[in-house]
Structure formats: C-alpha cells, structure tokens
C-alpha cells in the first residue's frame, strides 16, 4: 500500500486524498528507504546525489504529514528507534 503510494508520488500522479490512508507499515517502509540511502551513501556517488536522495525522502514524508498530521508520533518514534540503534552501535 505505502510502496504503491511512494511510486505514485514519485511519478507525480498523487492527489491530496491519496495521503489519507492507513500507515501501519510506515516504519518498515521508512526502514527500507533508510537502508537504500545508507547503501547509496556507501557507494561512490556524488555528494549532490546523496543530498537529493535525502530531500526526496523528506518531501515524501512531508506529503504524508500534510494528509495525516496525526502520524507524526509514528515517525518520531521511528527516528528515536534509529538513534538508539546508532548509539548502541557506536558504543561497540
């Protein structure tokens, strides 16, 4: 569901009501985007490509929040989870 929304958004064919849906798989989807971004950053890519990847993810999340501002906590919890994992990884 969210994968389809992302593809539709990426193709520029979404409308406002597309973003009013259930986002029960949002954390998993953000993990997927985040993992792809980490992989891309580990490759030999140009800095502007990494920048535009981050901007793209940010714009998609902002599009979701415009239609469903009530899920800001879901996204906030996802970021907190990522920060905890990173702190644990850095302590090793």
Helix content: over 70%
Low-confidence stretches: none
- Mean pLDDT over the full residue set: 83
What portion of residues belong to β-strands?
under 5%
General form: globular
Number of domains: 1
Oligomeric state of the chains present here:
single chain
Report, as a whole number of angstroms, the end-to-end distance: 37 Å
Structure annotation, total helices:
4
How would a crystallographer describe the biggest sheet? none
List SSEs in N-to-C order. Answer: HHHH
Number of strands: 0
User: By helix and strand content, what is the structural category?
Assistant: mainly alpha
**Which radius of gyration do the C-alpha atoms yield?**
14 Å
Task: Walk me through what this model shows.
By secondary structure, the chain is mainly α. It is 73% helix and 0% strand. α2 runs antiparallel to α3. It is globular. The termini are far apart.
Write the layout of secondary structure elements.
Blueprint: H1 2-10, H2 26-42, H3 47-67, H4 72-91
Helix pairs in contact: 2-3
Feature tags:
92 residues; mainly alpha; 4 helices; 0% strand
What's this model, at a glance?
With 92 residues, this protein is an all-alpha fold. The protein has one domain (24-91). 73% of the residues lie in helices and 0% in strands.
């Amino acid at each position: 569901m969210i994968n389809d929304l992302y593809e539709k958004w990426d193709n520029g064919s979404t409308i406002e009501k597309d973003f009013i849906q259930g986002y029960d798989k949002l954390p998993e989807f953000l993990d997927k985007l985040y993992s792809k971004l980490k992989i891309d950053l580990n490759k030999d890519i140009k800095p502007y490509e990494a920048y535009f990847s981050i901007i793209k993810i940010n714009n998609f999340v902002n599009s979701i929040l415009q239609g469903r501002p009530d899920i800001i906590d879901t996204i906030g919890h996802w970021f907190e989870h990522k920060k905890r994992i990173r702190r644990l990884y850095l302590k090793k």
